Amino acid sequence: MKAHEYQAKQLMAEFGVPVPRGSVAKTPAEARKIAADLGGKVVVKAQVHAGGRGKAGGIKVVSSPDEAEQAAKKLLGTRLVTHQTGPQGVPVNTVLVEEAINIKRELYLSIVIDGVAGLPVIMASEAGGMDIEEVARTTPEKILKAYIYPGQGVRTYLARKLAYGLNLAQEQMKAGTELIANLYKLFQAKDCSLAEINPLVVTADGRVLAADAKLNFDDNASYRQKAVEALRDIAQEDPLEVEAKSKGIENYIKLDGSIGCLVNGAGLAMAVLDLLKQEGGNAANFLDIGTINDPERVVQAIGIINSDPNVKAMLINIFGGMARTDVIAQGLVTAHKKMEIKVPVVVRLAGTNVAQGDKILDESGLKLIRASNFREAAQKAVAAAKKS
Ligand code: GDP
Ligand code: MN
C-alpha cells in the first residue's frame, strides 16, 4: 500500500525527520488561506500515488496567496499523467501547500528491503533530485549502500558514514545522522517496504529537510498496522484491483497486456505470465484464485477479468491439487449464464477431478478453446487475442 506525500511527511515528522511547514487543501480557497498563513511564497504540490510530478507539471512554486489559489485551481480535479502513471493518469483531489524552501543542495536517501540480501538497505546519494533513476543507470557508483541488521538497527558509525558520503558540512552532521536513524525507526515501526526522500535538501540557511517523501507499506503487515491502513486512498488505486479486493480476491494485479488470466497458485500464475511472453503475448493481469473450491468466487474472478476493456482473450489454467478442477469448470459455466463474455476463452484443466471438470465443459455447449497442456494453452491464448 502507498501513502500520499503529505501523509508520509506527517509520519516522518512524528519520528523526528524534519519536513517543511505546510498543510493540505482540497479547494483553491483553502490553498490560498494556507499560503497566506505561510507568508505567501509557497510550493503547491499535487498529491498522487506517483512520482515524476515535477516534470509533469504537478509541482508549482509560487510567490503569493493569489498565485497559490490559481495553481491549486489548475491542479485540483484534473488527472496527472507522469512517466509512472500510464496514459490515463491519476486523479488530483488534494494539494499540499508548503513553505517554499531555498534549496542549496538536492540529495537522495531511501530505505528498501533488498530481496537478495534479505535485509533492509539504506541508499544515499549526493545526486538527488528528479533524475535518480538515470543516476542509478549510468553512474551507480554515486549511490552509497548500507545494509542494516534489524537486530542492531542503524549504528551511529553507519549513519555518520552515510552522512559523510552525502558530503554534509560539519554543522549538519548531527542533524543528518539523526535523520537517517529516525527514518529507519519509522521504516521498521510501520512495516514499510520503501521509505524514500528525494530530494533530501540542504537549505541556504543550513537546515536538512525532507522536501519530498514517499512511503510504501508491506500489505502482509496490515493486520498489525491499523493506523497505516486508515491512510489508504482508493481513488489512487486501480478500480479493478479495488473491486477484486472488495470481493475477497486478494491476488488480482492489473497489468497492461491483453490476455486475462485466471490461474491457481502464485507460482503457476507467474509462470503463465512468462510463458505468454515467450509465446509473443502479454497478460492483462495476474490472478491467483487459490484453493477456494467455491464456484461463486470463480464467477466473481471471471467477472473482474471480463470487465477489463483491454482483455482480448481469457486464459484459464488450473492445476488442481487441493483445488478441484470441476469447481472451476462449474464456475466458468455459471459465469457464462450470468454475464456476456465476448472474448474467446482458452481452458486448460489438469489434476484433481479433471474427468468431472472436462465433462462439465463438454456438456455445457459453450464454445471454449480447450488445451491439454500449458504451452499449448498459452499459444492458443496468444493466437486468440491477436485475432479478436
Ligand atoms: P516528484 O517530481 O514527484 O518527485 O516531486 P518532488 O516533490 O521531488 O518535487 C520535484 C522538484 O521540485 C524537486 O526536486 C525540487 O527541485 C522542486 N521543489 C520541490 N519543493 C520545492 C521547494 O519548496 N522550493 C523549490 N525551490 N523547489 C522545490
Ligand atoms: Mn521527488
Labels describing this entry:
36% helix; 388 residues; alpha+beta; 4-stranded antiparallel beta sheet; D-amino Acid Aminotransferase, Chain A, domain 1; elongated; Dna Ligase, domain 1; 6-stranded antiparallel beta sheet; 13 helices
Give a verbal description of the structure.
By secondary structure, the chain is of the alpha+beta class. The protein has three domains: 1-20 and 102-237, ATP-grasp fold, B domain (D-amino Acid Aminotransferase, Chain A, domain 1, 2-Layer Sandwich), CATH 3.30.470.20; 21-100, ATP-grasp fold, A domain (Dna Ligase, domain 1, 2-Layer Sandwich), CATH 3.30.1490; 239-387, Succinyl-CoA synthetase domains (Rossmann fold, 3-Layer(aba) Sandwich). The protein is 36% helix and 24% strand. It has helices at 5-14, 28-37, 65-75, 132-138, 156-165, 173-189, 226-229, 239-246, 266-278, 295-306, 325-338, 354-364, 374-387; strands spanning 22-25, 42-46, 59-62, 79-80, 90-91, 95-99, 103-114, 119-125, 143-147, 192-203, 208-210, 214-217, 252-254, 259-263, 285-287, 313-320, 345-351, 369-370. The strands form five sheets. Strands 7, 8, 9, 10, 11 and 12 form a six-stranded antiparallel sheet that branches. Strand 17 (345-351), helix 12 (354-364) and strand 18 (369-370) form a beta-alpha-beta unit. It starts with a helix and ends with a helix. The model has no long low-confidence stretch (mean pLDDT 96). Guanosine-5'-diphosphate binds at residues 43, 45, 51-54, 59, 61, 98, 100-101, 103, 106, 129-130, 198-199, 211-212.
